[in-house]
Amino acid sequence: MTTQEKALHMIDSCEIAMFGNKDEQGNPQIKAMIKAANDGLNVFWFCSNTSSRRVSQMKKDSNACLYFYDNFEGVMLSGHAEVSYDDDVRKSFWEDDMLIYYPKGYTDPDFALIKFTAKTGNYYKDLQNENFDVK
What we know:
CATH class: Mainly Beta
Distance between the termini: 16 Å
C-alpha cells in the first residue's frame, strides 16, 4: 500500500478534522471541524457560517492545514482554503437538520462552505513520518 493510500484509508475513517489557519494578526489558530466530504486526498469540504471568524480569516490568508488522527496514526495536509457560496454545492450538502443554524435553507447568506485543496501531506504511524505530494 502506498503512503497516499494509507493516508486516505485513515482519513476515510475520521469524521472530524483539526483545521488550522492564521488569524488576522498572523497567529496560528486551530479548530475541530466536521468533514462534510472529500475527494480523495485532494479536496475537502466543511460547512461554516459566513459570520464565523474562520471565514473572515481565510479571506485574508488562504494558507491552511488539516490534521486527522486516530490513536497514534495521523495525516497532516497543507494547502489552501477558500469560501464557496455555490448554490449547487451547498444544496448537495444540505440536510434539513441544518435549518436550526440556517433558517433560510441552503441559500441562507450565512451558510458558507469551506473548500480545502491539499498540496502536500505527511503520514505518521509507528514513529515513522512519510512526506508525500497530493496529486
